[in-house]
Amino acid sequence: MKGLFGEGHAFVDIAALFGTTSDVIACIIFGKHLAHIPALSLPKLPVLKLADIVDVSKRLDAAIKMLDNGEAVAARAMIVRAAEIVNSPSM
């Protein structure tokens, strides 16, 4: 959490990631103790496999070329698919 705060993320954003309140995050970061701070679970982030990273990279490269050629609709479709790959949980 201190690292996220150090990168400039707001307390509300960090709190949303960990499913808690801004007050709890502030107490943890600044070392102040509340009467009771519930255990926080680690956020579940997508795990990308190498194949996913390569696929996303190829799709984004193709989207850039499409944008250069004025094919905005096709480029958007490629970008949306790349985002779906990144945001889908892998096992």
The helix tally amounts to 5
CA-based shape: elongated
> Which consecutive residue ranges, at least 5 long each, have pLDDT under 50?
none
Structural class, judged by helices and strands? mainly alpha
The overall pLDDT average reads: 81
Name the helix and strand elements from N-terminus to C-terminus, one letter apiece: HHHHH
Sheet with most strands? none
Question: What's the N-to-C terminus distance?
Answer: 25 Å
* Helix content bin: 55-70%
Number of strands: 0
Strand content: under 5%
Rg from Cα = 19 Å
Characterize the structure shown.
With 91 residues, this protein is mainly α. 63% of the residues lie in helices and 0% in strands. Helix 2 crosses helix 3. The chain starts with a helix and ends with a helix.
Quick recap of the structure?
Helices cover 63% and strands 0% of the residues.
Characteristics:
single chain, 91 residues, mainly alpha, 5 helices
Give the helix/strand layout.
Elements: H1 2-6, H2 11-18, H3 22-30, H4 50-68, H5 72-87
